[in-house]
Amino acid sequence: MIVVYDSLTGQTKRFASKLGFPFVGVNEYVLSEEPIFLLTRSFNFGEVPKSTKNFLDNYSAKVIGTAVSGNRNWGTNYGRAGDVIEKTYNIPLVLKFEASGLIEDVEYIKKWIDDRIDKGDEKDGKKD
Prior knowledge:
Layout: E1 2-5, H1 11-17, E2 23-25, E3 36-41, H2 50-59, E4 63-70, H3 80-89, E5 93-98, H4 103-119
């Protein structure tokens, strides 16, 4: 398992560093056999960053799930990039979080990933 993150301000990188898995930025990812969990962000009131789109256009088949950083002040657009990714790439949106995430957010993602690995279905990444 590898965590790939897209970060402008360092928030998703900090979240990635708390998960206990190897992690790398979207622009530094090198193809491997490992399944991917994607951490990204919303910008411009819910858009998917271009760097995330480029990454997904190349590697979406390896991504088992995603979590998206956003700002609750954006109302219905909070974490909207995750909704777009789920619909466009058929990748489960596991969590929307603010800033670099709460301890509970990190634990939730760790458990979600561990459950997939334990079940041996890390490549289908079905959402509970």
